[in-house]
Amino acid sequence: MRLFIVSAIAFAAATPAAAQTAASTNNYDGFRGEVRLGWETPTVSGDGDVYKLGSAVSYGAEAGYDLSVGKNVTVGPYASWEQSSVELDADAGAGIKVGRNYQVGGRVGTGLGGVLGYVKFGYSNIKLSLTDTEIDYSDTKGGFGGGLGIEGNIGKNAYAGIEGNYSDFGKFEGINLQRRQLAGKLGFRF
Q: Of 52, 68, 124, 148, most Cβ neighbours within 10 A?
């Protein structure tokens, strides 16, 4: 009887600790929303050369849902919107301005010793504007984008992370258009 009581007490004491440990290694699921601040470089390429349209700050937000499908694995959809401040002024008074970029897709994450590492892939759409003294023209172009990132929890529901992104929009007015970005983020899980 004495062994049974000691075993029951040990089991009762160990169960909350085990549950807490399991929760702390996989508490990356649920709805999430984040704000993002990045540095981006849209580029064009042709004839074997790559040209930067400029480098500048981007800012925006992302919303998503992460579903736990294993001890350390999450999957889920996301949607992001970002505004760019990249602007290229030509000598003749004309300029190219990079506007908003949005992306919808999915991501897969895995727990890496207290943080979540993930890869994401989706459809991306960018807006470019041409301005000079006589005309003001803008157009959008869709393509595919993806990213690699890492995020860690701050307290119970908040998280912070860093992410690298790349999008390829294919041919735009006869030239290849890409977007590269490195962003920091701060988010909240609901």
A: 124
- Would you say 116 and 163 are in contact if contact means Cβ atoms under 8 Å apart? no
Residue reference for tokens 């790559």: 50
Q: pTM of the prediction?
A: 0.78
Q: Average pLDDT in the 22-45 region?
A: 81
In terms of pLDDT, which residue wins out, 17 or 103?
103
Neighbours of 155 (CB within 10 A): 7
Task: Pick the closest to residue 118 from 91, 152, 154 (CA basis).
Answer: 152
Identify which of 58, 110, 97, 112 has the alpha carbon closest to the alpha carbon of residue 80. 58
The structure tokens listed for 11 are: 């089991």
Cα–chain center distance at 160: 12
- Is residue 62 within 8 A of residue 33, CB to CB? The reply is yes
In percent, the amount of the chain with pLDDT more than 90 equals 51
Q: Are 96 and 129 in contact (CB under 8 A)?
A: yes
Q: What is the dihedral of CA 179, 165, 159, 72, to 10 degrees?
A: 160
Average pLDDT over residues 14-42: 69
CATH, residue 9:
2.40.160.20
Q: Give dist(CA 138, CA 135) in Å, integer.
A: 10
The total of structural domains in the chain comes to 1
Tell me the pLDDT band of 112, cut-offs 50, 70 and 90.
Answer: confident
Q: Which residue has 């970002």 as its token pair?
A: 82
